[in-house]
Amino acid sequence: MNYKLYFEVPVVGGSEKNDYWVPLMKYFLDQSNNIEIHCWSIEEALIEEVKSRAKESFEISVENEMTIFTGNKTAEMVDYLFTNLNRKIEIKWFSIFLRRNKILIFSSEHNGTEFFAGVVNEKDINFIESLMPERTSYSKYK
User: Fold this and answer.
1) pLDDT per residue over 29-71, tens digit each?
2) Cα–Cα distances in Å, from 129 out to 29, 33, 79, 115, 139?
3) Of 2, 4, 17, 39, which is the most buried if we count CB atoms within 10 A?
4) pTM of the full structure
């Protein structure tokens, strides 16, 4: 049986490690074929950094003070998502949405503290729970 799963890591004092993020993203990136990255439009250096990796293969739009990069998953973009991560601070991108054939399968939002998995089974949920910090809260629904 498939479920939808929302889960959130409580942020207390900004000292939480995010060791869970890379294996979690790899798990869902393996299932996706499209990546959408949202950055606050005022984060000019980050936007330039993403542009330099996205090249012409990603569509760029601006909506509600967010700069949005959308395109097919490429090895270069996957590599970019896993480089220069500091395990003790927030993820630099505000939101990342992963889709398979236009269906949302996973999102990492609010700089890697809130997540949504659109189609997961018990095996997927067990894997997610094995990665996440103890205080993570979960909401599972059909």
Assistant:
1) 999 999 999 999 999 999 999 999 887 889 999 999 999 999 9
2) 18, 24, 25, 12, 12
3) 39
4) 0.92
Query: With the CA atoms of 133, 25, 38 and 85 taken in that order, what torsion angle do they form, in degrees rounded to the nearest 10?
Result: 70
CB atoms within 10 A of CB 63: 9
Residue type, 118: G
CB 141 within 8 A of CB 15: no
Report which of 31, 50, 54 is spatially closest to residue 106, judged by C-alpha positions: 31
Neighbours of 3 (CB within 10 A): 16
Domains identified in the chain, total number: 1
